[in-house]
Amino acid sequence: MYWASFFWANWGLRVAGPQQVISESQQPQTHIGDHSATRPNIIFILTDDQDLHLDSLNYLPYVQKHLLQQGTFYKRHFCTIALCCPSRVSLWTGKAAHNTNVTDVSPPYGGYPKFVSQGLNDNFLPIWLQDAGYNTYYTGKLFNTHTVYNYDSPHVNGFTGSDFLLDPFTYQYLNSTYQRNKDPPVRYEGEHTTDILAEKAYGFLEDAIADEKPFFLTIAPVAPHSNVKFEALPEPGGKFNAEFEPPIPADRHVHLFPDAKVPRTDNFNPEEPSGVNWVRKLPRQSPENVAFNDHFYRARLRALQGVDELVDGVISRLENHGILENTYIIYSSDNGYHIGQHRLQPGKECGFEEDINIPLIIRGPGVPKNATTGIVTTHTDLAPTILDLVGVHPRADFDGEAIPTTKEAIKAATLDRHEHVNVEYWGFAAGEGKSWGQERLHWNNTYKALRVIGKSYGFYYSVWCNNEHELYDLDNDPGQLKNLLSHHSGPAQTLLGHSLHKVAARLDALLFVLKSCKGRTCIEPWEALHPAGNVRNLHHALSPKFDHFYEVQQKRVEYQRCEAGYIVDAEGPQFEEDGIVFRHGSHWSHWV
Question: In the chain, at which end, N or C, are there fewer CB atoms within 10 A of the end residue's CB?
Fold first, then answer.
């Protein structure tokens, strides 16, 4: 007996019949004119593992037409942890992962049970929006380890209507399971998950419009995530083995892009090893390996075509109802993706630009059209942004701040917005393609990192849990191939007219604050180092008058040991909000 059939029969889950994909000509033509005079609606389209640096946006004509040409592209947008569940929790709470304490995809350090145990099911964006008078809807993937076993213990709070993808079938494109409101889960065997999702999204959109209240709708397709098959029937709360495969596109898309290949950038399967820790030990990929990864890449592009069609369907319905001009549409992903860069097999979880710099497009009332901005934004900024768009004051405990969405505000932000991104990660990194005789899981992938983008510089600085360090000058080394702190990097050099040591000391102090920051300190970390307010960016901090402060007085970022989750006593000295550095409960020094 096929194990999935046994599973559904024994757990009493319903099997859905075929769903009809509705054509544009069949759509209702209802117009609700008074909607345009109400508070704005918001639709958030959140893809799964979509890249920016592998050019996936260039293969999405409807995203180009309806969003990029009609909105603003935020090209310096970052997730702060390159893993599905913790990134999504940060997005919906406005808090860094070290403050949500959701740092993995499954217990004990992450997943839906961890989200619930941390009290976040009663304290995240949809609840705040409902308090502000909005109807809220969600369909698609919410969090990992949100399963057919635990979906009702408890149900997710905060949604007027919901239809969630559930594990262990979230990533099975042709065998998905959705769970609507308080109903039992329903299996859709043989139907493509993105087409199912589209119909559910359109249904919620009709419900939202009919109610004539302002609404927030999230549409979260699983594409272009890998297709994941489970090799054994899991017990509730138990472990299971999984097989990763390229994503599966709908039949109508399988012929597309036959000649597409992963962009052959300098860091694609480089001749020399790069990075540190386990990354530096990776062998160069064989021609057969590269060819398979190109196939994997094409499968991702094809799987995204259903999402592209969904964007067109959403826009058409908003137009038909006369509310498009009063609706913000936000398009992003939970994290980025690499395929072959630094010799890596398909996957994420690294701090490299491919994994953390991700798509963000916003269109809506007052948002500049066909515009691009380089201001620095992160996923912790999105909850504050959405509250700002609906006229709600930001919460004091947010680790991010609202993203400017008007021409005037964006222009002002180019002058005074912060220039940093706090990046963190705990636990494993996984290869999602074929193993090619290599280890698929790398367990010592815990690190803290910092991305700084200024007017004349762009740096990435990281400290790993084995206390190896990285520093890349992305303005001159966009592929992050030359670690300036490696003994392989050659003779000492200067950065910004200063010694490498001097710049690294400033970056380390900034990361020291950010790795355990809370609230406003995450937004303005230089103020924690310089309460007088005389330092607001790296250029200011490089003044010679601060040399002793940074290079002699300050403690450094360091780990005591590698852990798979956020365990404070493993992470060395900590910066506290009262200006005191603590380590294992003992005072180290005061900041000046």
Answer: N
Sheet hosting strand 586-590, strand order edge to edge: 574-575, 580-583, 586-590
Amino acid code (one letter) for 380: T
Cβ proximity of 227 and 171 under 8 Å: yes
Q: Could you say which residues of the chain have pLDDT below 70? A: 1-37, 231-241, 488-492, 577-592
| Residues carrying an active site annotation | 84
Distant-in-sequence, close-in-space partners of 155: CB < 8 Å, separation ≥ 6: 182
Which homologous superfamily is 3-18+38-247+263-420 in? Alkaline Phosphatase, subunit A (3.40.720.10)
Which of 53-91 are b and which e, b meaning 16 or more Cβ less than 10 Å from the residue's Cβ?
bbebbebbebbbebbbebbbbbebbbbbbbbbbbbbbbb
Domain ranges (residues) in the chain = 3-18+38-247+263-420, 450-590
* Distance between CA atoms of residues 529 and 508, nearest Å: 12
Please give the pLDDT value at position 584.
Answer: 33
For residue 270, give both structure tokens: 């480089």
Closest among 450, 462, 425, 439 to 522, alpha carbons compared: 450
Please answer whether residues 12 and 184 qualify as being in contact, where contact means their C-beta atoms are separated by less than 8 angstroms.
Answer: yes
Quote the tokens at residue 445.
């992938």
- Torsion-angle region of residue 325: left (phi > 0), alpha (psi -120 to 50) or beta? alpha
CA distance 496 to 115: 43
Cα→Cα distances 478→79, 184, 268, Å: 18, 49, 12
How far is 48 from 141, CA to CA, in rounded Å? Answer: 9
Q: Which of 200, 223, 216, 237 is nearest to 92 (CA)?
A: 216
Asked if 50 and 61 touch (Cβ cutoff 8 Å), the reply is no
Kindly give, in sequence order, each residue whose CB lies less than 8 Å from that of residue 56, ignoring residues fewer than 6 positions away: 50, 224, 300, 301, 304, 359
Cβ neighbours of 576 (radius 10 Å): 15
Amino acid identity at 269: N
Three-class SS state of 360: strand
At 501, the amino acid letter reads: H
Q: Is residue 135 within a helix (H) or strand (E), and if so which, with residue range?
A: strand 135-140
Distance CA 128, CA 386 (A): 10
**Whole-number Å distance between alpha carbons of 497 and 503:** 10
| Dihedral pair phi/psi, residue 228, rounded to 5° | -120, 120
Instruction: Confirm if 110 and 102 have CB atoms less than 8 A apart.
Output: yes
